[in-house]
Known about the structure:
about 250 residues; TIM Barrel; 8-stranded parallel beta barrel; 9 helices; binds 2-phosphoglycolic acid
Amino acid sequence: MSDRRPMIAGNWKMNGLREEALALIADLAERTGGPPSHCDVVLCPPATLLHAVDGAGRRGFGWGGQDCHAEANGAHTGDISAEMLRDAGCGHVIVGHSERRADHGETDAQVRAKAEAAQRAGLVAILCVGETEAERDAGDAEGVVVRQLAGSAPSALAPETAIIAYEPVWAIGTGRTPTLEEIAAMHGRIRAWLDERTGQGAGFRILYGGSVKPDNAAEILALADVDGALVGGASLKAADFHAIIAACPGN
Ligand code: PGA
């Protein structure tokens, strides 16, 4: 790890009602003793909870949305803009998660527009990329990820306003993960691409996501080009999420 500050982000997906969310955050804050000094912690709950968890209730953690619309406002029923997330206290937003790409047919071009909307609103975009199992089996994992990066990274790509999350689709919610060698190779490839594109590859944070748990976090987070994790299921259990935070090497 270089001087990049690691980040552990929790993606709650479509989980959490107010009471259980408040209890989870209080439990987590008690375990961590507030925002840890060795890494950034960002919680991405459903948008309905962002105002429910306000002020001191945020416990000093970073907050993020799970998706945003590309426009700032307008006739887009059911959508939420990056500006609205910012207004609700977010500093980050996940864009291009594979569940959005699969369930909502989001294309690379749409994801790029969302990442650019995040930047416009003053949010850091956490841009997700990752191959399916069939694509990996076909030997095309790196090709897919590079094509997704080329198609969905914002045109003004910079380490201050974009974080990349490598999330192999087949590892999400399955309990399966790539080998450490495969994770290291993909993160190295992503960093090389970022460097070719911006000349600042070493400055970008690249998170790994997909079945990160307390028992595999330390070895994954110790890899040179892994700058943190995007955690789904395990972020819904304070003890597990805390264990992952604790396993993160500091910087
Ligand atoms: P998981 O999800 O940790 O439950 O595999 C990760 C993600 O989808 O961000």
